[in-house]
Amino acid sequence: MFEDKLSVRAKTMKRSVIRELLKLTTEPDIISFGGGMPDPSLFPTQLIADIVQEVLEKEGKKVLQYGLTEGDKEFRQQLAKRYGRTEGIKLTEENILITTASQQGLDLVSKIFIDPDDIVIVGLPTYLGGLAAFNSYGARLIGIPLDDNGMQVDVIKEHLKQLRRAQRRVKFIYVVPDFQNPSGVTMSIERRKKLIEIAEAYDILIFEDTPYRELRYSGESIPSFFSLAPRGRVVSIFTFSKILFPGMRLGYIFGDKEIIDKLVIAKQGTDLCSPAFTQAIVREIMKKDLLDGHIQKLIVRYRDKRECMLAALERYMPHDREISWTRPEGGLFLWLKLPEHMDADEILQRALKKKVAYIVGSAFYCDGSGKNTIRLNFSYPTFELIEKGIKRLGELVREEIK
Amino acid sequence: MFEDKLSVRAKTMKRSVIRELLKLTTEPDIISFGGGMPDPSLFPTQLIADIVQEVLEKEGKKVLQYGLTEGDKEFRQQLAKRYGRTEGIKLTEENILITTASQQGLDLVSKIFIDPDDIVIVGLPTYLGGLAAFNSYGARLIGIPLDDNGMQVDVIKEHLKQLRRAQRRVKFIYVVPDFQNPSGVTMSIERRKKLIEIAEAYDILIFEDTPYRELRYSGESIPSFFSLAPRGRVVSIFTFSKILFPGMRLGYIFGDKEIIDKLVIAKQGTDLCSPAFTQAIVREIMKKDLLDGHIQKLIVRYRDKRECMLAALERYMPHDREISWTRPEGGLFLWLKLPEHMDADEILQRALKKKVAYIVGSAFYCDGSGKNTIRLNFSYPTFELIEKGIKRLGELVREEIK
After folding, report:
1. How many CB pairs under 8 A join A and B?
2. In chain A, what is the straight-line distance between the N-terminal and C-terminal CA atoms, in Å?
3. What pLDDT is attached to residue A18?
4. Which of A156, A163, B30, B401 is deepest in the core (most CB within 10 A)?
5. B311–A contact, CB cutoff 8 A
């Protein structure tokens, strides 16, 4: 009855591979390397209960009421202060919009910039939630291959030259510079600077998405695009999902005051405002200066889990020069490359029979390539399950090679 | 730097009058009849603190993690059960999607149905959050005048005949049937049945928005569109903002399984999922069977406040046959009509000087008419402030008449 009434957008929308797989992997005996879920044993549950009691006593009437679309003012001030400390950038609350985690950041930025057929430049691969958001507004995506230093900026330049000749407009370049999802690759400082130069020369916005930036387990931190580029060139989105918990769905956008202003109007039409209740909880965690300590705990745990997964891959994966994986300095994911002729999508069915799950790499390629790649999450499963699951996966790959 | 890159949508987006006015009215000495805020003195703060403690103890790892896009399964089952009891309709959790209150319902339904230039039929006046959502997807709006029995269905029929001749497609008819925002008018049962007949004959969806349905202070409840119409004809959105609290931003959509399925995909790209944490809190309030009792408390309070405002209007408004107001049987608003030559927008500046605020009625008219109308909220201000504020407003109107 309703199919003929759907918008063009709705007719072409596809279910998120990850969300669907997450459903499947709630079966308790499947070891899942899918999803990007934090380790739930580190959730600070008692702290939250205490803070809720306090917040409701002190400001119950305020936090249960409607709030500003921009988000709680003191919360935004805390965020500005913290960013000043960690990244050396001066911001005020007027540069910040609170969102329903980073997915809403992706949606709102798309909403204010993308008209159907506008061009957006993305990594090949890149985060599929980004691809879904851009696609839902009718963007035409151009994928740029990654190497060990991130997106190949020279390839971007070539595309831009051609597009300029064809008088086609590029709306923005989407980057996940730190421990990229899905590849785990971090963009080098040289590449970042070069990309900013190109964006300035061609007058294109850079859309920075850095959910894992603070989860670095080794190596030196590289300045963010937001701190490197001239003011107004970059819009950045962040989330508390990975550094605190996903269950309150809180994130934020940094940008020029005027861009934030447009995003606020877009959010008014989308959901009026984010919950004052959950904003107050996270704000108090920051005010009590407990966020950094919590992140330190995550770093210690996830570093060990990364080591555990790398060791298991070393032990159980066939030693074949066509099989390789990344050794990311942070984040939540390893990226596994199988021999060219293998199809991770097809193998997944057999993997599920062996009770192990992963995300097929092709989901992250806007051109449908990457069939022989796999994203592996190491933050969620226990050490024991990482070992067991990689063993199962190693056996499977061995069988497939034969 | 970014203005030339904005989408067509963003260039035409307007700030919500209400959200902007809300900001203004946080000044403590202004008496505000703007907004649609619940009475904060009735928020069940201690109950929430207790439930949070319990939820975090029992299921902290689950509620702080990512959840299903559809929403918490048990929460949806509770909602289906409750609706079966109150409206006599059999639903399952597959007919329900949890949203960020009703504004996200408006946005998601627009997202899956509206292509630029599609026609949407709305009330004249109607809820401005609906207008904002439909406009943001490029809808062309046709406004239908209201009388004491709601939207004039005969006028709709005339429009549909003409549109059919012009081969123009109508995507849906948007109705706020119970204690409509802003007018307070309730659509009669005859009108509802007639509208369903027309929607069937012309094969058009009905989009029902009923945030105040359970807040009835007098008269008999009238069956909802969702319960009256054949399955699949109606999509309904609901919110906990008015019957519990707005500060957790929770609402839901009822619809055919296939429509819910499309909405789920749209939500995946928009914000992945609503917070498992806040869903668990409201679910527990329902499971403990505390929601109905809370609504009863609201009804008693708001009924008294409605009486208080009606009495104050009677007392302080000039007795002039060009001045009238509605006497709604429920909801949060009265609708005041001033003499035709008056402009409520202009008068607002003088009202603010007198420290009283309201929402200009024209914000609710898709054709920009209604300049001489005013929406007055009676749920938020105290009895004392209702009396005082209406007195100020009455004085102002008296001055304007002279």
Report:
1. 271
2. 50
3. 67
4. A156
5. no
Give the CATH number of domain B46-288; options: 3.90.1150.10, 3.30.200.20, 3.40.640.10, 3.40.50.300: 3.40.640.10
Give the phi and the psi of residue A300 in degrees, each rounded to 5.
-60, -45
Q: Which two tokens stand for residue B382?
A: 């105290």
Q: What is the CATH number of domain A46-290?
A: 3.40.640.10
Of A47-51, A244-248, B17-21, give the lowest mean pLDDT range.
B17-21
pLDDT, tens digit, for every residue of A358-388? 999 999 999 999 999 999 999 999 999 999 9
Q: Least CA distance to B35: which residue of chain A?
A: A66
In angstroms, rounded to a whole number, what is the distance separating the alpha carbons of residues B110 and B125? 19
Structure tokens at B221: 């409840």
**What value of ipTM does the predicted structure carry?**
0.95
Give yes or no for A46 touching B (CB within 8 A).
Answer: yes
The beta-carbon neighbor of A45 closest among B19, B56, B232 is B56
Q: What is the pLDDT of residues B164-192, one digit of tens each?
A: 999 998 999 999 999 999 999 999 999 99
Residues linked to residue A22 through DSSP beta bridges, in sequence order: none
CA gyration radius, chain B: 21
CATH annotation of A3-43+293-401: 3.90.1150.10
**DSSP helix/strand/coil, A260:** helix
Dihedral sign (CA A65, B224, B289, A246): negative
> B42 CB near a chain A CB, below 8 Å?
no
Tokens of residue A113, six digits: 């910039």
Write down how long chain A is. 402
Q: Which two tokens stand for residue B120?
A: 């949407």
User: Residues 6 or more apart from A246 whose CB is under 8 A from it?
Assistant: A37, A38, A101, A239, A240, B64, B65, B66
Contact between B128 and B363 (Cβ < 8 Å): yes
